[in-house]
Structure formats: C-alpha cells, structure tokens
Amino acid sequence: MAPKRSLKERPLDAIYYTFFLIHLLCSLTVNLLVIWPTRAQTIPGLDVVYRLLKGVVDDYMTQTNDPFMLVNWGLVERPWEFAYLKVFLCIEAFVQVPSFIMGMIGLQKDSASIYPLLLAYSSTAIVTTATYMHAVIIAPSLSDTTLDPLSKFYAMSDKGRWTILNPTIVFLLVPGIMWVDMMVRLGRLVKKGAQVEAQRGRAVVEKNGKAH
C-alpha cells in the first residue's frame, strides 16, 4: 500500500480542498442565508451576524439583480420564474455542502474512497453552474431601451453581469478539472482492480489444475 501523502505533496488535491473550504463559507454565509432558521436570526450575537450578512446580500442583489438571489428570496414577479434555481438551492444545501465537508475530510486523509463522491459532486456542480451562468448571460441588458416592463425587471447592467460571471467562472473551472481528474483516477483504480481479479482467477485455475 502506498504511503499517505500530505496535501502539500498533492497540488490538485490542495486546490480542491481550498476550493471546498471557500465554497462552504460562501454557501453558509451568502447563498444559503435565506434558509437560516428563524431562531438563529434572533440569538444574541448571531442576530448581528445575520443582519450584517443580509446587508451584504441586499447590496449584492441591488448591484447585480442576480436571478438566483431574486427567486430564492421571493422577489420574482411570478412564482414559476427561475423555479429551477430553487432546486439548485436545495442541491447546494443537501448535496453540495455535505460533499464539501466529506470531501475535505477525505482529501486530508488522502483517501481514494472519496473519489466517487468528488466525481458525483463535480458532475452536479458543472450542470448547475453552467445552467446558472447561461441564465445570467442571456438576461436582458439595462441599456436596451426597447424592453417590456417584465424584461426590464430582470435586466442587468454590464457591470452587474460581470460581477456575477467573473467569480462564477472559477466555480465552473475547478469542478470541470475535478471531473476529468476523478474520471482518470477511478479509471486507473478500476483497471488495477480488474488486473488483481484476473490474477486471482488465474491462481485459482492453476491451483485447481494442480489438485487434479
């Protein structure tokens, strides 16, 4: 069995670990702020944190008109608009956040058993992030003077659009690299396992042949 290596000896894993840590903090303090329990919003000390974070979110929404925030804070014109982004919120809360935690633990331990989870996470992240980015890219522009009232409600300034897209590119790039990396690693493990099983099979055949 190969000796366990530290994160410093595994550059890609160190990047994944850092990415998970940053994403976890962003998720818990910004993206998932809308589902903080009401009680947590009134606990002395924590209520101050909540108000500060809510102020940051409000400023961000004002600057960007981010559809993800609009729909999850109930600020859309019709309930069904951008409804899929509500599903993405659930995926982030109940699939991705646990994946961040378990992923960091597995990466810290240099455990290959975490590879299937990282492949599953990266697959969902690519789909949700690419879909979200597409919605931002095709959103109407505030500079368009021909917009109808509904389109104008969801329109973005160029600055707001790039405020969203610039950091989001990283949240697509890292899972993309992770997906390819995990496919390669798992492919190697499967190949190695198949070779071991083949060797065991030949050993059994030879043993039975000698017994006769």
TrEMBL record:
Listed A to Z, the keywords are:
Membrane, Transmembrane, Transmembrane helix
State the source organism's domain of life. Answer: Eukaryota
One of the Pfam families matching this protein, by short name: EBP
What is the membrane topology listed in the Swiss-Prot or TrEMBL record? Multi-pass membrane protein
Give a yes or no for keyword Zinc-finger in this entry: no
Q: Describe the location of the EXPERA domain by residue ranges.
A: 12-179
Predominant cellular place of this UniProt entry's protein: membrane
> Which protein is depicted?
EXPERA domain-containing protein
Q: Where in the cell is it found?
A: Membrane
**Cellular component per GO, a single term:** endoplasmic reticulum
Which segments cross the bilayer?
A: 14-36, 117-142, 162-182
